[in-house]
């Protein structure tokens, strides 16, 4: 029965899909993602429910938006309080296992896996706690740095990704021998292209510095940032750490290299699937938790509502999925929950807002489908909500002026139309849609209260400032870099 297939979910971290061949980049090489897209359906317009790791992943696990999970930022790990697709499928008797980065609360929490291999979770068990200090923001003893070494080399993350690709290949081989009675589900989480921006030299060398363009809309070239974004950048900004444009280009080359590196690791797993005769009865999804600004508007990392930060890859292949199709239907990680259930033949849940990607791939495109994203986490002075429908993208910032972009006429979001008289009816319509879903001021207050309670639980602002402050999340068995 075609309705019941195995499911392989491949998730990278921080991959803006526009840095891949199949999404149209003229330079970045991603032969394995491209092969997956040729064998399946590529969703042109996919978004994260929140442009930061832990909240995005809680929504991915549960199929629910951040304001429902209340996993507001990187210190609020998903602990299985709301059940998701994994728990449902385990209950139905499926083998549901994970390899690699999950970024949930910890390995003990019932987060929807019958077994976790080499899992990576919240840093030091707590995450980036200082990011939850608001009203006023935390004052750090020394500035937070995203980048130290940049360029060719091997980080612990690179080694971890290799190890996880190998483990996935071995896992698939073992399934071919054991022949599970029910369809299996395997989630593989990679860290690349997440910083540190260090990548094996063979991938770094693929992108000569002189061929790399400088990012758009840098404030020093006269671009005025939205005041909410400017406030955020004063807290978590990284651009001032670069000594010059040469170094910025090295950072971009390393990121492009990491995109090709993770593509190569994905290629190993796709080969293992084919070699063990699982291609005909396995659905495959490639996606990421969020994107990366990569210097646009002088911003690095994620945390804003612009395309660089909120767009994600979304490619689905396997039985009953149209081949070599590009769909203009907007999708998000909230769609993974119903997708996982339908892939394995379990009944969908009634109260979820997502839809199965397999169904969406098989029906006529719906560019007018409404999708949303939201951000409440580190650096945010207030809750921010993004609504995308058709050509329009509406960014609402509680307590600030909104932004409106026409993504057909202006895909790079260089021209905010919110102040134009002609936009008033569109702005009113989007704000009404948003307020029909949530009251932004109430959500903003709820998020800040939850964060304040978390900080209190750690003994107050001063103690919390030092928790999980240095380095990025360490790989299992290694110290933080």
Describe the structure.
By secondary structure, the protein is of the alpha/beta class. Helix content is 32%, strand content 16%. The chain is built from 14 helices and 16 strands. The chain has an 8-stranded mixed β-sheet with strand order 5-4-7-1-9-10-2-11, sandwiched between helices. Strands 13-14-15-16 form a 4-stranded antiparallel β-sheet, with helices on one face. A hairpin with an 8-residue loop joins strand 13 and strand 14. Helix 1 packs across helix 8, helix 4 packs parallel to helix 10 and helix 5 runs parallel beside helix 8. The termini are far apart. The mean pLDDT is 96.
Please render the helix and strand layout as text:
Blueprint: E1 6-13, H1 31-38, E2 40-43, E3 46-47, H2 53-62, H3 66-69, H4 85-91, E4 96-101, E5 115-120, E6 151-152, H5 156-178, E7 185-193, E8 198-199, H6 201-204, H7 227-236, H8 245-275, E9 282-288, H9 307-310, E10 314-317, E11 325-327, E12 331-332, H10 336-343, H11 357-362, E13 371-375, E14 384-389, E15 392-397, E16 403-406, H12 424-437, H13 440-457, H14 461-465
Parallel strand pairs: 1-7, 1-9, 2-11, 3-12, 4-5, 4-7, 6-8
Antiparallel strand pairs: 2-10, 9-10, 13-14, 14-15, 15-16
